[in-house]
Amino acid sequence: MLCFEVSVNDKQPITMGHKELAHMSLSLSYTPEVSSLNLSSFGGLRKVTSRDDVVSWFESELSAGDQISIKIVESLKADNPVTPNSTKAEKQRTLYCAFCGSPKTDDCRMVVSVLCICEKCVALCQSVLNNG
Ligand SMILES: [Zn+2]
């Protein structure tokens, strides 16, 4: 099967692939407002019956100077993907307030919807509405 062998900064490569794969992709994204630079992997399995059939192999936070290597290889085996919701990377993904840019921390809760809003900004909006 065709696989993507992905390595960041010459570390141990991850081989993306699956025998039941319908598609797979890599996404390099940069969001300057929150200084977020990420390399994400996604795959869809042929029998998609729920969100759990959308898989991921890794997610990597990057910074300037990092080097990504992608090699397309024929391989009989690949690293096992996981569903994004159960990956350690997903659990550790940082959420940022859309108003002030603060990251979610253990001592600052976040309202998460289409946008994320930290509790400090919620309190600020509440005081503006109360005093306005
Ligand atoms: Zn905020």
How many strand segments? 9
Percentage of β-strand residues: 35-45%
| Unreliably modeled segments | none
**Total domains, how many?**
2
Topology as H/E string?
A: EEEEEEEHEEH
The helicity comes to 10-25%
- The coarse overall form would be elongated
The distinct ligands, each listed once, are: zinc ion
What does the main sheet amount to? 4 strands, antiparallel
Distance between the termini: 63 Å
Tally of separate helices:
2
Q: What structural class do helix, strand and pairing data support?
A: mainly beta
Mean of the pLDDT scores? 83
Instruction: Calculate Rg over CA atoms.
Output: 19 Å
Describe, in plain words, how this protein is organized in 3D.
Strands 3, 4, 5 and 6 form a 4-stranded antiparallel beta sheet that branches. The protein has helices at about 90, 120-130; strands at about 1-10, 15, 20-30, 35-45, 55, 60, 70-75, 110, 115-120. It is mainly beta. The protein is about 15% helix and about 35% strand. Zinc ion binds next to helix 2.
Quick structural overview:
This protein has 132 residues and is mostly beta strands. The protein contains 2 helices and 9 strands, in the order E-E-E-E-E-E-E-H-E-E-H.
Secondary structure elements and their pairing?
Elements: E1 2-8, E2 14-16, E3 21-31, E4 36-45, E5 54-55, E6 59-61, E7 68-74, H1 88-92, E8 110-112, E9 116-118, H2 119-131
Antiparallel strand pairs: 1-2, 1-7, 3-4, 4-5, 4-6, 8-9
The structure holds zinc ion (ZN).
